[in-house]
Protein 1
Amino acid sequence: MEENNQSTPETIEKTVESPASTPPVLPEGTEAPLDKRILAAFIDMLVAIGISWAAGMINGRLGYPAAVGYLLTRDSLPFLEGQSLGKKVVNLQAVNEGGKSLSGDWTPGIIRNIPMIIPFFPLIELIILVINKDKPNGMRRLGDQFAKTKVITVNH
C-alpha cells in the first residue's frame, strides 16, 4: 500500500504556527513600552560601568566622569544615530515631541538624562512611569517632560 505524502490544506494549516505564538511588533513611532525602556536603561547602566572601568584603567580619576558623560549624552551621540546603546539593542529611540531624533541635539539629550544620574531619582522616574503607564503621554518620565522628549519604537 502506497502512502500519500501530498499536502492538503488541512495538513498545511496544522503545520503553520499560530500568529499568537510570535510577539507583536509595535508600529514604528509608537510610544515605547515600559519593559523595553527598563531593559534599555539596564543595558546603558552596564555600558556606563564598562566605560567607567576602561577609563579608570587609563587614569583612576577618569572612570566616574566618563560614565556620567555617557549617561548624560547617550541619546544625542551622532555616531549612534541618536540612540543610546541600550535603546539601539531594543529598537527604541529618544526623540523630541515632533518626532525628530536627538542626534547631535545636546541640550534636550542632557536635560532628559540629568534625573537619571541623581541618586535614587531613577527609582522615582520608574514609579512615575508605572503609575502613569495607562494615561495619555503616560510613558514620559520627568526627564522627558523637562526636555520635551519621548521614547518611541523604531524598526531598524
Protein 2
Amino acid sequence: MPEPDLSRCFQLMECEDVTLLQRWASAWSDLVEIEIVPVALGKDVAAALGPDLDAAAPLA
C-alpha cells in the first residue's frame, strides 16, 4: 500500500526464518531501501505482558 505521494509503500510478509527476508532485502538493496519491522499478534503481546498489561489499564 503506497503513501499518497508514492514516496514509499508497505508490505506485510510472513516468513519462519527472518534470514530469508534479510537475504531477499539484500538482493534488492541496489534498487530500493527495505526496512524489516517485526510484528506480533495482539494475543501474543497480551500473553507476554500479562499482569503488566492489567496494571497499566486505566481505571473506569
